[in-house]
Design goal:
Blueprint lengths: L1 E8 L4 E6 L11 E6 L7 E6 L2 E6 L5 H15 L7 E9 L10 E2 L2 H9 L8 H14 L5 E5 L9 H4 L5 H6 L9 H15 L8 E6 L3 E7 L2 E5 L21 H8 L5 H10 L2 H6 L4 H9 L3 H25 L4 E5 H6 L1 H7 L12 H5 L6 E2 L8 E4 L4 H15 L2
Parallel strand pairs: 1-6, 6-8, 9-12, 12-14
Antiparallel strand pairs: 1-2, 2-3, 3-4, 4-5, 7-8, 9-10, 10-11, 13-14
This protein binds adenosine monophosphate.
Adenosine monophosphate binds next to helix 10 and helix 12.
Pathway: Metabolic intermediate biosynthesis; acetyl-CoA biosynthesis; acetyl-CoA from acetate: step 1/2
Enzyme class: transferase
GO molecular function, one term: acetate kinase activity
């Protein structure tokens, strides 16, 4: 058996998995791990392997210490890089700009190109580079592959990609819609044609990735033609803590009249808004519990969320003309039957009919939740970005020999 190591490096944390690239999306990974509180005195490493959890607490000075200690823990558990065959290391990279569309074998030049994109993702790309540099040092003899969150959407049609702002300013500042969650949208969109028993090049579909972050995409004949996230992952749908689309004038108002700095507004819209901003919680399980207790703010937050979601679904139905499938994925999309039902309620007129029983059935498998006579097929398909990255990294490593 051969595996891929998948690394998702954040500013103060590293998530990693060792994955069999041939496993199913709903399978547990061979190993999963989390390094937390990097740079803090109370760092923590948690590893899950073979149904058991192993945790250790220690100061983790930097990403290198975090990853080295994790690999040593894995080797002690008998599942580390010296014991199992790892054929590729896949790195999640948030922003590939207009430079990267497909996964890229990492060398010094590619690292520099990802560094050049830091102004587009100042919080994410530096942390991604830290993870890449450390992992290349620790595992120098394994091919490392960068997989970009923006890649799937790089070739959006200009009408969807451009913002109607001054063209010179936009070009100078690389302002355009890049889209994010691309690995997940591509992974899901790739599975739907088989469920319809049709070639991908003939399928028009809408993918709704509803997790703590949330985004939608419209895919026509196999190619994305629009997506809800924009230049940054703040745009589009209402999310757990992010506002999604708002009137940009609100930002000027908060700066001029609300006494807030740019950083405070950034924090407000990214971390204190969305469902949490209205209801005080961002987890949909808490939200539904509060709604059942007749909490007015929770009910409002849910309705704002559903309203924005339906707006986008409507927009994409028009953009696509004919819709063959609508697919829900990610934490909310896979688990929250109420959100799915409310997102598509009352649309029988448009050929969309949800089967109540199918929708409420709990399952980790890809499944249809529309009725047999629904013209538009509605599915729930579990996403697994780590598995998708593992598959892409393994395929590229194999191709390059
Ligand atoms: P993700 O970002 O894809 O991991 O999704 C995480 C979010 O999924 C959580 O914040 C919850 O809002 C939601 N979620 C997870 N499990 C459930 C569940 N059983 N029912 C409703 N929502 C859920």
């Amino acid at each position: 058996m051969t595996y891929a190591l998948v690394i998702n490096s954040g500013s103060s944390s590293i998530k990693f998995q060792i994955v069999d690239p041939n496993s199913a999306a709903s399978d547990d990974p061979f190993v999963s791990g989390l390094v937390e509180q990097i740079g803090e005195p109370n760092g923590r490493i948690t590893i899950k392997h073979a149904g058991e959890k192993h945790a250790t607490q220690l100061p983790i000075a930097n990403h290198k210490v975090g990853l080295e200690t994790s690999m040593a823990m894995l080797n002690e558990l008998g599942c580390g890089p010296t014991q199992v065959e790892i054929t590729a290391v896949g790195h999640r990279v948030v922003h590939g700009g207009m430079v990267f569309s497909v996964p890229e074998l990492i060398n010094d030049q590619v690292v520099e190109m990802i560094r050049d994109l830091i102004p587009l993702a100042p919080l994410h790309n530096p942390a991604n580079i830290d993870g890449i540099e450390v992992a290349r040092e620790i595992l120098p003899n394994i091919p490392h592959v960068a997989v970009f969150d923006t890649g799937f959407f790089r070739d959006l049609p200009p009408a969807a990609a451009l913002y109607a702002i001054n063209a010179e300013v936009a070009a100078k500042n690389q302002i355009r819609r890049y889209g994010f969650h691309g690995t997940s949208h591509e992974f899901i969109a790739g599975q739907v044609p088989a469920m319809l028993d049709r070639p991908a090049s003939t399928v028009n579909q809408i993918v709704l990735h509803l997790g703590n972050g949330a985004s939608a995409s419209a895919i026509k004949n196999g190619h994305p033609i629009d997506t809800s996230m924009g230049m940054t992952p703040l745009a589009g749908l209402v999310m757990g803590t992010r506002s999604g689309d708002i009137d940009p004038g609100i930002i000027f108002h908060l700066a001029r009249n609300g006494g807030m700095s740019i950083d405070e507004i950034d924090n407000l819209l990214n971390r204190q808004s969305g469902v949490k901003g209205i209801a005080g919680v961002n987890d949909f399980r808490d939200l539904h519990r509060m709604i059942s207790e007749e909490n007015e703010n929770a009910w409002l937050a849910y309705n704002v969320y559903i309203h924005q979601l339906r707006r986008l679904i409507g927009a994409y139905m028009i953009a696509l003309g004919r819709v063959d499938a609508i697919t829900f994925t990610a934490g909310v999309g896979e688990n929250d039957a109420a959100t799915r039902a409310d997102a598509l309620a009352g649309l029988a007129h448009y050929g969309i009919k949800i089967d109540k029983e199918r929708n409420e059935l709990r399952s980790g498998e890809p499944r249809q939740i529309s009725t047999d006579d629904s013209t538009v097929r509605v599915f729930v398909v579990p996403t697994n970005e780590e598995l998708a990255i593992a598959q892409k990294a393994t395929a590229l490593a194999a191709k390059l020999g």
